[in-house]
Amino acid sequence: MAKPRKQRVEFRKNRSTRRRDGDLTRTLGDDPDAAADRATSERISGKGDLTRKRTVVAHDVDADIDGLRVAAGETAWRGRVLNVHGLESHVQADDGRIVRCTMRRLLRTIATDQRHPLAAGDWVRIRDVGDEGTIQSIEPRHQSLSRDSRGRRHVIVANVDQMIIVGSAAQPDLKPGLIDRLIVAAESAGIRPLICLNKVDLVDPSALVPLAGVFARMGYPVVLCSTVTGMGVARLQAELRGRVTAVVGQSGVGKSSLLNVLDPDLDLRVAEVSRENEKGRHTTTTARLLPHRFNGWFVDTPGVRQFQPWQLVPAEVPSAFRDLRPIANLCRFPNCTHDHETGCAVKDAVADGLLDVRRWESCRQLAVGDEPREEDE
Ligand SMILES: Nc1nc2c(ncn2[C@@H]2O[C@H](COP(=O)(O)OP(=O)(O)OP(=O)(O)O)[C@@H](O)[C@H]2O)c(=O)[nH]1
Ligand SMILES: [Mg+2]
Ligand SMILES: [Zn+2]
Q: Which domains does the chain have, with CATH numbers?
């Protein structure tokens, strides 16, 4: 390969700064879904900065680096997507360098069933000129957390090992149904779920024991936590080493606060839960990867109000319910929906107090594809 050299080049039109029409920040408010939807349809202007020059390390001739064909003036490498903002993302290379990237035009159109072709956590191939890059390809994902967003797949984060599902004991109120749904998404993606019931300082912890027991009996780690008293923090820290851990849950439950106590170097922004509705205000608006002191990564995610796992086949829902799964095998009919059938072992187990009635309801609701209504939350 020819020796790279430095040269002065002009910005190409499609690499120049893009200007937004109007003030999106103000018009979109706090809703991260609206922001993401808007970002993909946003009109952008390629004008501006056309005469600027920059110094880049360039190859004299076309080269083949790491399996990627690289044109003169470009370098190529593999990296991990830290966050995605509309058409832009930040990607970290193996040497720690972080580069702002856009996506190759073809990639933007190829994944039609996805809300966005790129997700935080993706491994990608980049070509760059100086300190700006273009994502050329996305590697196949394993273990990604996906939800259904109006019929399209929304990959919240890709390539994670485990997820801490956070609920809060109060402010906002605990939503066990949301925890069930997040467990289903984790189970069907092969992600290890850990359940964290936060803000325990606000309640009598004994009130949480029955619910914690339901999850613990299924074999999931359940940690009662408080970022105020430090309860449960060491227990969670013990699970982090060398892993990519996503933190998910309703807005305002304390996900970012929890990351701040798990690794105080992070210093993430947290906010008061609004008093009027206690629903939280989406302080975190996009998923982002954050390296932590235990030689792994966190993924802080925006709060979810509702969660419909992506492409859930009704008949397969019970298999994502660890407590229900072994009982469902005993039903008289193999295609039992555990709803009205005679000889349903699941209904019998609920009647006998062997299976939690709330879990049975959660399972039925998911199997018929019902979104929980907002007023139920
Ligand atoms: N009492 C109490 N308050 C907490 C605890 N953990 C977090 N909080 C408070 O809860 C509020 C919301 O915390 P955040 O960390 O911003 O919540 P989040 O889940 O990241 O919210 P989003 O980013 O909007 O999804 C803040 O006012 C925190 O100070 C806790 O253990 N006990
Ligand atoms: Mg947050
Ligand atoms: Zn049944």
A: 5-138 (2.40.50.140), 145-300 (3.40.50.300), 314-376 (1.10.40.50)
Query: Interior CA angle at 227 toward 245 and 290, to 5°?
Result: 30
Q: Give 300's strand partners.
A: 247, 288
Residue 361's pLDDT band, with cuts at 50, 70 and 90, is very high
The 10s digit of each residue's pLDDT in 150-162 is 888 999 999 999 9
Q: What is the pLDDT of residues 219-248, one digit of tens each?
A: 999 999 999 999 999 999 999 999 999 999
- Which residue is closest in CA terms to ligand 1's atom 27? 272
Contact at 8 Å (CB) between 57 and 2? no
CA of 65 to the centre of ligand 2 (A): 39
Distance 201 CA to ligand 2 centre (A): 19
